[in-house]
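Hello forum,

I keep getting stuck at the same step: I have a sequence, I want structure tokens, and every attempt I make locally crashes halfway through. Rather than fight my setup again tonight, could one of you with a working pipeline run this one for me? It's a single chain of 526 residues.
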Amino acid sequence: MPLRPALSEWTSAPCDLLVVGGGATGLGVAVQAALEGRQVVLVEALDFASGTSSRSTKLLHGGVRYLVQGRIKLVREALRERAIVLGLAPHLAQPLPFVVHERSVWSWALTTVGLKLYQWLAGGLSLGPTQTLSADALHHSAHVLPGTLAAVRYWDGQFEDARLALALAQTAQAAGARVHNHVRVMGLVRQGEGWQVRLKDALNGQEAEIHANCVVNATGVWVDGLRQMAMPSNSLKQALPGLVKPSQGVHWVVERALLPLKEAVLVPRTSDGRVLFAVPWLGATVIGTTDTPRNDAPLEPRPMAEELAFLLQETERALGVRLRAEDVKSVWVGLRPLVVGGSDASGGTAQLSREHLIARESAGFVTVTGGKWTTYRSMAQDVLAELVRSGDLTAPLRVAQTERHTLFGAPPPGTPAVSLRDAPGLHLLGTQAAQVAVAAGSEEILGLGLTAAMVRYAARSEWAVTVEDMLARRWRVLFLDARLAARMAPRVAELLQQETGIDPALPAFLDLCQQYQLRPSDLAGT
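Reply #2:
Ran it on my machine without issues. Output:
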């Protein structure tokens, strides 16, 4: 039986709910619906988490900066969800200490009060104590930043976003959902009591139609495109107002030796008022992010010159490290779907909402957008509740206790976890690690902890088809070291071709590796 089933093999079966979009939001909806006992199909045009959901700052957080805005309810919800996610996949989501360095007594005092409130709001779900640190104490526990008078340590969470998305896909599949990547929606029309949706397999060109009682549009920054497709006439398409405005965030990665952090660093006030993070992650240090509005939403956005200049300046000013282009192992860009509303005339994103929005514009067609990784589960609950409330779906067959249903691969409670601050290894596969460790090809080391056996496993059990699937998301080489990814790519392509018989798109991935590399000219004049 082929690893990748033909569209006709799974589109003819009944479908209560078709979820379009394989990021955190869509996958969360699929898990929720499948555990409620519904017939669920999820399709993703590219690969799971290939958009925003694999390009985060790797933080599960309640939103410290939302406290300044007085959005207490949003913070409390996120703190609750943070604790839940940490329990659902402890090998992929873990507590992480943060240090906020301050340069004046006044700012240090304000920060201490705010972070004490942050811990208090978490209540019994707090991950650790908020502590004040003198400059002397910092020398024994953390990297001391320029001009530091004193600091505050607090706790939040970090995670491996792409593999957490994959765990959601595997959990949904185990609960009965039909989950497919590289399948694009080509058209949809209201028909009878549901929707007739035309699908196309992007890898082999096959097309088929599926009838779904309801459709959930969870395509992130691209939700407006699917909303227009669902409109029955051109006049309605043209009159449809947009729901989201993309905001671009840039991160870059350096070797841990250049910025040897044991704990994450939050810079609360950069030169232009934005927040900057430096996070130890998978053996490297991630620095970011920017927040730049865009009027378009390309699949692979590129960093703007001013964003690179900002990161270079703040890495030196706030973190005390002067970087050269060759010091940056990878630079990546992600687009955030910010809900439109209250934006200023200049088109800035400061007034746009990061809370999620659920919009029902037609019977059985719901769009969900905005929000953040931390709250994917509560967003999914809200979507299913809205579909039931509006009469698009009947009441669930059973209660989906998603707050207790551990994700695929999660080790048993009490199992010691390898820190996500350490280099990647088999431990990221959770309960599947033992069988992969002894599989054929485990002795062939490809780089950054990846073996030939792991590539074969990803092709057979994790929907990996292209080199990008494998080296960008199943294993984070592209995001950690783009030059190394290019060197590993040819052998990975051979292994994938052997397993799937499908073109692994090696040339396209090698081009992508170039885009993730920084050149001296990119920093010229900064």
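The chain has three domains: 14-52+163-243+353-389, 90-159+246-338, 426-520. If your local run keeps crashing, start a new thread with the error log.
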